[in-house]
Design brief:
Length: 305
């Protein structure tokens, strides 16, 4: 098992292509630690192992906090709840997707930029059912389980996306409000290509909100940026890259065409309310044909071998 240190009292682990984080409270302020995001289904054992390595055998977090409910960030919560009796927090706008009440808007494979975008059609839109465990985050008062960290509302990638910020050393846990790699490309995601980018294009249904959220994060001037996808970015370069991303959001982050580029999906506290219709671009048709050819090539190669 491989995990890495993000900052003092903060550790992360990459599970396949998504990161989870563990934050220890400073003793004078509160006890214990929290888990931020939970990785895809099947990651439970690895997360428990990492926790026991850091905090001792039989340890339990004070809470699990979800930056948002997408399946790659919430998938293993049910496994963890078999071992841990802890509350799970998310913003109230995420709760409909985490209780089976609503489904996220469909992914947009037409945004291009790599294989992950095309594969996104297979991603689950209704992740896990956490009814009875999930609680809304108190956005005004923050989390008792993590008193020194600020909870920042950063919607756009999902309607109730939140980020976590520690003002003392300006550590930002950004979830998918930004990515620190090319989240659309399999090479970017599985490798460790460092590049501050907007939220994963194929799963972002509201670009205007996403831009506002990046603006809010840029104003925090974080020196340490730990995102859901990609390696940790540090130092003045990280702060500057985030400012650049915010200033040039349309050019850097927003796909040139896509289902949600002109019209966002609309959601409220009961879930998805409106999904713009899907119009297929020529570029997307070409990409699908290319993927088909590649699949055909792989199959023939297998048959011959
Ligand atoms: Zn996501
Ligand atoms: Zn993600």
């Amino acid at each position: 098992m491989k995990y890495f240190q993000v900052a003092q009292g903060v550790w992360g682990m990459k599970l396949f292509y998504v990161n989870v984080y563990m934050i220890a409270n400073r003793r004078d302020f509160a006890k214990g630690w929290v888990l931020v995001d939970a990785g895809p289904a099947g990651s439970g054992d690895k997360i428990i192992k990492m926790a026991e390595n850091l905090f001792g055998k039989g340890t339990q977090p004070n809470a699990i906090i979800l930056t948002h409910g997408h399946a790659d960030h919430s998938g293993s919560v049910p496994e963890l709840l078999k071992h841990w009796d802890v509350p799970v927090y998310a913003h109230e706008f995420e709760i409909p997707y985490l209780t089976g009440q609503s489904a996220y808007p469909p992914a947009d494979p037409s945004v291009g930029h790599g294989l992950m975008s095309l594969l996104s059609v297979f991603f689950s839109r209704s992740p896990v059912d956490l009814s009875g465990h999930i609680k809304p985050v108190n956005m005004a008062g923050g989390l008792d389980e993590l008193p020194e960290w600020r909870v920042v509302f950063t919607p756009g990638h999902s309607p109730g996306h939140i980020s976590l910020f520690f003002p003392l050393n300006t550590t930002l846990i950004a979830g998918d409000a930004v990515a620190t790699t090319h989240a659309e490309s399999a090479i970017g995601l599985l490798g460790d290509v460092k590049k501050l980018s907007g939220p994963p294009m194929y799963m972002t249904p509201d670009w205007a909100s996403a831009e506002q959220s990046v603006g809010i994060l840029a104003q925090l001037e974080p020196r340490i940026i730990a995102a859901g996808h990609g390696p940790v970015l540090r130092g003045r370069e990280a702060t500057e890259a985030l400012k650049q991303l915010s200033a040039n959001f349309n050019a850097i982050a927003v796909p040139s065409s896509g289902r949600y580029v002109d019209k966002p999906a609309v959601a409220d506290e009961t879930g998805t309310k409106y999904i713009p219709p899907f119009t297929v671009s020529t570029k997307f048709k070409a990409a699908t044909i290319l993927l088909g050819m590649l699949a055909g090539f792989m199959i023939t190669k297998q048959i011959r071998a």
